[in-house]
Amino acid sequence: MINRNIIIAFCLFSIVSCKNDPNNGNQEVSSNEGSKKPNIIYILTDQWRGSALGYAGNPDVKTPHLDELAQSSVNFTNAVSVTPVCTPHRAALLTGKFPTTTGMFLNDLYFPEEEVTMAELFKEQDYSTAYWGKWHLDGHGRTNFIPKERRQGFEYWKAVECSHNYTKMPYYDNDNTALKHWEEYSPFAIVNDANQYLTDHANDENPFIAVISIATPHYPHGSAPKKYKNMYPPETLTLNPNISEEFKERARKELQGYYAHATATDEAIGSLLSKIEELELTENTIVVFSSDHGEMMGAHGVKPFVKQLAWDEAARVPFLIRYPGIGQNKGKVVNAPLTTPDILPSLLGLANIEIPEDIEGENLSELIKNPDPNVDRAALIMNVAPFGSNFKDAPYRAIRTRQYTYAVTPDGPTMFYDNISDPLQQNNLLGKTELQEIQKDLDHKLQQQLQHIGDSVRPRDYYMKKWNYVFDKKRNAIDWWSWKEGTGTVQSPQ
């Protein structure tokens, strides 16, 4: 019996030692069952392209703090937005479901409180929940008060439906119905408040999930602080060769402010990362940096500010994730794409929380803990009902793999790019005889993705009628501006 006990004790010691070895890249996020679960800090920016960062190889933009974060994180180089525009991305992020399932495929829809969301799932595990900044899921106008029951489980609340006034950003302070305004450039103000929250909750018995939704570098770009704009004289900025001649001058002007917002926001994020370090939260906190979508900035003949499209400028976003026990995985790269609904189940997986069966995204936590640049998968991108500036565009479904982008509209295939040999997506390979088998395989992978969620490629009107949505006839979008006159109408999947 003594010998048997010695053997058992030795085995248990070996297992625990392996898990706690700082050089073991496959360390568990929470090493002991029953220990405090990891905090989660999710930094959500707006319209930040995956290419617009120093660590991504951009020759112009200065993002030293995010570059440093990349060195201590796993970097998903081909992360994509499931629908490259605000509301659909945010709904998919919070639910782990695709826009065709929730009906949240347009901006300014009301996200019904009946949906089970990120905050609610973590609250069930005794997490405190907090949200700052742009929400864009309430559908009751862009500056109206959002009551607690419509905040999808977030308790601490310093947010507004939607604003891009970075010098006088409005917000609501928890349950105070009076509209307030941040007193400084909003990325700095929001992060300062978040830093105070971290300070107040660093030693709590229960973990927290904090979503810090910073609205930059979304336009208007001219409102970026002068100090940062002066860092980017337009004539010195590099333009990609896929930017059309008609938009080159405008692209330089917009890039000046875009990069200025990016650098200022990087500085704000640097303050947040320093606070995490100062409070000794690093060893038990998952940190994510990402964006809801990118923007075209004149590429492929599409004017600046426009998104919603499957080209990388709009669809590819940054995604860095740092987690407890990352060990030798610091700075490693995953080239397999990740799409928005994959994020929630992956966070749940990292926190050792059961994933609800109706979540449609894939739990990539094992890939995060064992990053392999050669792994491949197909990530779904879609635009169910193009609106606003994209109203004349065809709806599409697309997949991004490690190497290819492939897209189909109701009229047939439209995109086939080899993103390794052609990173600016200038050579459409559709119909190339020598690539027929690859195209056929990509089409098969796309159809598999659609079958998984019960979707198919149909005209916009089909989905508009299915969900009873109506566009304003002049702007071809959900009418959010009439709320200012007191005549707004809620449009919602339920």
TrEMBL record:
The keyword Cell inner membrane does not apply. Keywords: Hydrolase. Residues 38-353 form the Sulfatase N-terminal domain. Gene3D superfamilies: 3.30.1120.10, Alkaline Phosphatase, subunit A. Belongs to the sulfatase family. This is Arylsulfatase A-like enzyme.
